[in-house]
Amino acid sequence: MPATFIVFLVSCQALGATIGVVTVVWSELAYVKAMRDGKIDTAERKHLIIIGHGLRYGLSLMLLASFGLVVVAYIERAQSQPALSASYWIFMMLALIVIVVASALARRCVSFGVASASLFSAWWFLAYLAFGWLPLTFGATVMAFVVATVIFYAVLHYARMLALP
After folding, report:
1. DSSP track, 64-132
2. At residue 122, does pLDDT exceed 90?
3. Do 145 and 122 meet the contact criterion of CB atoms below 8 Å apart?
4. Dist. CA 74–CA 82, nearest whole Å
5. Which residue range is the domain that position 87 belongs to?
6. Mean pLDDT across the chain, nearest whole number?
């Protein structure tokens, strides 16, 4: 029973990350499409709100599954506790970055370009972590995240310049 439940939780975590990555890419495309005429109308705003809900549900699913994995490991008295691993704390740091940056963006405390690039980077890093494809230390992940954010900022800025009149 616990092995099946662990597989379910890991699958939920991967599904949440996949939902987040798909909706963050979708939101970039929708934003560029919405801004082609220079303003966001009511239908476009509703569309962006729906995308925001997808991001929220993806993050919630990931965090709940992660919490479930920690609880199951504790109850089963597993030899290696997830909450003591670097990958768990990288995961939590990136989830916190998504929450804080999205909140700052909603309050207009940070520029859209910087927030968009950091959210884009964070979601991709979360997906790589959820699928186990990012075997880095905490410090290396932080530096890779900063570099990826700068690269995504430049790429997204250039893509918006080409797409917008």
Report:
1. HHHHHHHHHHHHTT-SS-GGGSHHHHHHHHHHHHHHHHHHHHHTT-S-HHHHHHHHHHHHHHHHHHHTT
2. yes
3. yes
4. 9
5. 2-163
6. 85
Report the amino acid identity of residue 28: E
Residue entry with tokens 């250039």 = 158
Residue 52 structure tokens: 């925001």
Structure tokens at 24: 């963050």
The identity of residue 144, as a single letter, is: A
Domains in the chain, number: 1
pLDDT (tens digit per residue) in 50-69: 777 888 888 899 889 888 88
Q: How far apart are CA 114 and CA 164, in angstroms?
A: 18
Instruction: State yes or no: pLDDT of 35 exceeds 80.
Output: no
Buried b (16+ CB within 10 A) or exposed e, 142-154: eeebeebbeebbe
Long-range contact set of residues 66-71: C-beta below 8 Å, sequence gap at least 24: 66/13, 66/91, 66/92, 68/5, 68/9, 68/12, 69/6, 69/9, 69/10, 69/13
pLDDT score recorded for residue 86 = 83
Q: Of the ranges 52-61, 74-83, 88-97, 99-108, which one carries the lowest mean pLDDT score?
A: 74-83
Q: Output DSSP code: residue 39.
A: S
